[in-house]
Amino acid sequence: MKVTQFNVYAKRLPMASGYNMSSAAVGEPDTTIVELVTDTKYVGWGEICPTGPLPQSEHAGSIRADLALLGPALVGLDPRRLGLVHDAMSSTMDGGHGAKSAVDIACWDLAGKAYGERVCDLLGGARMDPVLTYHVVPIGTPEASATVAQALQDQGHTKLQLKAGGRHIDEDIAAIHAVAKVIRPSVDLFVDCNRGWTVGEAIQVSQACKELMLAIEQPCATYAECVFARAHLRHPLLLDESATDLATISQAIGTGVADGFGIKLTRVGGISAMRAIRDLCEASSTPTSCDDSWGGDIIAAACVHVGATLNPNLSRGAWISDPYQIGHYDEEHGPRIVNGTIAIPPGAGLGITIPDGYFGSPIASYS
Ligand code: 0XW
Ligand code: MG
């Protein structure tokens, strides 16, 4: 099998409802789709969709610029030989982790199609099906947050991420207490301010909520600040944005900084990198999720396939943006949340079928 053409597509994803974080509200994210065309009947699909230039450093423009560098290097390679594909990408550019991740996902899709296996089965098999997920409770008043949390529990969600930050911590503390009051004992609550608090604020919030069962996700902007905060928190610390690579994750586990992770596939290098992180977390009994920032059925399927292979006792779920999206690329098998879980798309590779011409003409093509 050889790559004969590499196509890049752009697509705006209309929102079905609002979504806010401490640094910015999400508005019609601009997703980037990659297509690996081969000398067989199979094509491979990858995707990366940042939520915007404020919540994270990579954005659609930087990703597409990186893909322009990587595209020519991919033509002629066997996409099933992922080590050689990553060698070719690493010898083309040092950075571009998001773009490289999207290519990695497309290679896994192709490997599955070539061998007639689902991606989760190539990764060792589905240990959960359907796959656990978690649902976000957006930043809001204490009453509104509690109402949303109550409704999500009633829908079967057992893991809730309460968004915080971007306002005075007193408002965050009030919302946390209001949600904690309605949370059932079997429901996990974690508070994610997306790097929005200072070290002092993180400590104050944790102290003010010390009697509540919850975890605190990515309270501060940098890894170093999270290290300082961790020493004084009354709650487990989950790293998300600072969990950038296997070395940092390994250090965070080894030094007791992180009690768990929220991992974004396209931040760490794609499915190949997530497989190593999954195994390290299992070996150290460290809970992790398998998420991404945003995106359609392709990235959602990648998160679900990897999420299915997490140790069920350590899984924090696979997050997908489906509840906030309008429509699916694959109306039949695009990942959807039902009663707090997500069915694994059937079929080889990612299990997603993209209708011919769905993404229109490529914005770039390399052959
Ligand atoms: C909930 N997510 C995985 C999706 C949004 O991009 C934010 C992110 C998070 O946990 O920070
Ligand atoms: Mg997070």
Describe this structure in words.
By secondary structure, the chain is of the alpha/beta class. The chain folds into two domains: 125 residues, 2-Layer Sandwich (Enolase-like, domain 1); 221 residues, Enolase-like C-terminal domain (TIM Barrel, Alpha-Beta Barrel). It has twelve helices and 15 strands. The longest helix has 19 residues. It is globular, with a radius of gyration of 20 Å. The mean pLDDT is 97. The site of magnesium ion has 6 residues, from loops.
Question: What is the compact description of this entry?
Answer:
With 367 residues, this protein is of the alpha/beta class.
| Structural classification | alpha/beta
**Multimeric organization:** single chain
Give the distance, in angstroms, between the N- and C-terminal Cα atoms: 15 Å
Q: If strands are numbered along the chain, what order do they take across the biggest sheet?
A: 5-6-7-8-9-10-11-12
Mean of residue pLDDT?
97
Which descriptor suits the 3D outline? globular
Instruction: Give the radius of gyration.
Output: 20 Å
| Hetero ligands | (2S,4R)-4-hydroxy-1,1-dimethylpyrrolidinium-2-carboxylate, magnesium ion
Would you identify the CATH H-level superfamily of the largest domain?
Enolase-like C-terminal domain
Strand content range: 15-25%
